């Protein structure tokens, strides 16, 4: 495959970063079409991101363009389902931003239709395409420090704007941010089904503000996840194994560093070997383009991953399979149920 | 006060470390009496720790020695109450290891008797005497980065030996280890009463193995605490404020470092100023004595704190007041109730 030709649906901040990151890909990518709520807005996007030769459309126009190989959906969360389904109806493979759908029912519809139409589909769990995640995968698979015992992740932002606490739009910190912590745990535990899910936290007007999710896996293994939208907490992930642990000390969802600790003693707690493994991918600091969100230059890995999946004729990603996507939303649905968070889409 | 003369009850590992740490105190301390289950065992302790001139006794003997100014109780957890009460009956002030008592009822008996006898009493929350904790106290009191929003702490050890999972002895990771996380939160929130307590976790044979405790304080402030006795997790504490956060990145219960992060932006997550503040107190690495437990050289701060309290005629510690001690055990009692952990002492 010489070049992968993208159509972009939604011309907001995340779409800007996605198309910018493509310039640093290993494979050849080209944005050939952009669709927004108005063609004027799409034109602004194309100009701003210097997407030479890209055509501008409303949303539907992108799907009608025969030149588009694959569609990237960077729309608002509550618009994902409608446009995934329409893209499949137009015979287009899809990479769709997470959270894919507000609930399992919506996610299942999307996955079912992708299967039915035999079209590639992936939920944009970009973290899993990062070199740091691949490193973790290899370390854990070979049990470099013994079997995994616990996963911890904490992700809280001080989200300005009450539109992020809007159950009517299926928007809440749990689905916006908490989903990253669940995805991290499920990545480490290789998409195993937790035996028990426990969620606690605070809700206001039927929308979660912050909380914890505990996932219990067989054999006394667990994940303890913390998320929130009310203050700027540590954003880190840690994996405890029998003989040591791995820390993703900053921005675990788009990490550039893994720290490996090896247990040397237990009671004294201080006898540990520390090794830092850095993945600076061309140094973010030197990126010539400005990104809207932290480390979004790393979206290049996701774009290249989709390239390889399509080149190899795959219908699913090995980094985020359909089953994986569905299990994660099952977990967040159960967490929401326990927290008492009801989205308007749950009533449909 | 020229010299504070200590009697030590219990000659185990923690008592060894406590008397060793005294050698590095600012004030003058002397161990004049040691009591163990046998005088032979007390003699071994005195010899090993080079406590020249210290007399050896059984437990009662220490309390009868008129030369003893204050008693340090380093016995097993389930023996604390009996010997605190006896010490007070003998007119001795007490510093007693934590957890003070398995439940509120036991702790209340001890505190009530100390008050009744007008004798100094402190539960050994040694963390709170560390320079790093004093630094945090000052920073938070002056709202250097705005009001506190959240506290996080994680403390898990791979505890070998099933005697640490023994509800009959009032021994469980929650009381052994989890109490440090609760104490940290209550220190930051200045002993405020949480409005809501939520505990989740795993229990086997009515004993907790690991869990989380969420404390909700007025005004949308919270502490999320993780504890366990089944694997060697990160042992860190973090305090999130409106404009930044403080990390105690290693061994938050006996810390030598605080890292201060200042928020510079929210969405990009990466614009933070970092300042490390180290409290190396004479470099642990160069300590001439070997300690049994991590950073136990820092027990010196607690010994000096007790010296100052007694010198100044105080009956309570400002670092761990009676009310503070009682509130912490109320919280762990409620957490145990939710987890379904019942100690034999609860049935008395």
From TrEMBL, chains A, B:
UniProt cross-references to InterPro entries, sorted A to Z: Gfo/Idh/MocA-like_OxRdtase_N, Gfo/Idh/MocA_domain, GFO_IDH_MocA-like_dom, NAD(P)-bd_dom_sf
Reaction catalysed by this enzyme: D-xylose + NADP(+) = D-xylono-1,5-lactone + NADPH + H(+); (1R,2R)-1,2-dihydrobenzene-1,2-diol + NADP(+) = catechol + NADPH + H(+)
Protein name (record): Trans-1,2-dihydrobenzene-1,2-diol dehydrogenase
Domain GFO/IDH/MocA-like oxidoreductase per the UniProt entry, residue ranges: 134-245
Highest taxon in the source lineage: Eukaryota
One GO MF term: trans-1,2-dihydrobenzene-1,2-diol dehydrogenase activity
UniProt organism field: Acrobeloides nanus
UniProt cross-references to SUPFAM superfamilies, sorted A to Z: Glyceraldehyde-3-phosphate dehydrogenase-like, C-terminal domain, NAD(P)-binding Rossmann-fold domains
Domain called Gfo/Idh/MocA-like oxidoreductase N-terminal: residue spans: 4-123
């Amino acid at each position: 495959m010489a070049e992968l030709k993208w159509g972009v649906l939604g011309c907001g901040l995340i779409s800007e970063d996605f198309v910018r990151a493509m310039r640093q890909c290993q494979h050849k990518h080209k944005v050939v079409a952009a669709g927004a709520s108005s063609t004027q807005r799409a034109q602004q996007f194309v100009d701003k991101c210097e997407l030479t030769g890209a055509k501008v459309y409303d949303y539907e126009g992108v799907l009608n363009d025969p030149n588009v190989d694959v569609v990237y959906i960077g729309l608002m969360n509550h618009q994902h389902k409608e446009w995934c389904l329409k893209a499949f109806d137009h015979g287009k493979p899809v990479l769709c931003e997470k959270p894919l759908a507000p609930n399992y029912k919506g996610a299942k519809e999307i996955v079912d239709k992708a299967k039915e139409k035999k079209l590639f589909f992936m939920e944009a769990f970009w973290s899993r395409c990062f070199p740091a995640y691949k490193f973790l995968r290899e370390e854990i698979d070979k049990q470099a420090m013994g079997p995994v015992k616990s996963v911890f992740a904490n992700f809280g932002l001080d989200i300005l704007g009450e539109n992020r606490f809007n159950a009517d739009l299926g928007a809440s910190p749990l689905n916006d941010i908490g989903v990253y912590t669940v995805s991290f745990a499920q990545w480490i535990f290789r998409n195993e089904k937790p035996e028990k899910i426990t969620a606690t936290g605070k809700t206001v007007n039927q929308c979660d503000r912050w909380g914890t999710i505990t996932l219990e896996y067989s054999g006394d293994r667990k994940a303890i996840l913390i998320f929130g939208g009310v203050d700027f907490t540590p954003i880190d992930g840690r994996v405890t194994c029998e003989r040591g642990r791995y820390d993703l000390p900053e921005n675990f969802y788009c990490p550039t560093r893994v720290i490996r600790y090896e247990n040397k003693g237990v009671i004294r707690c201080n006898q540990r070997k520390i090794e830092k493994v850095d993945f600076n991918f061309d140094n973010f600091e030197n990126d010539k383009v400005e990104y809207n969100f932290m480390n979004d230059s790393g979206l290049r890995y996701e774009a290249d991953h989709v390239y390889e999946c399509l080149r190899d004729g795959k219908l699913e990603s090995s980094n985020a399979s359909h089953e994986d996507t569905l299990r994660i939303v099952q977990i967040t649905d159960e967490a929401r149920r326990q927290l008492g968070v009801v989205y308007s889409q749950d009533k449909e």
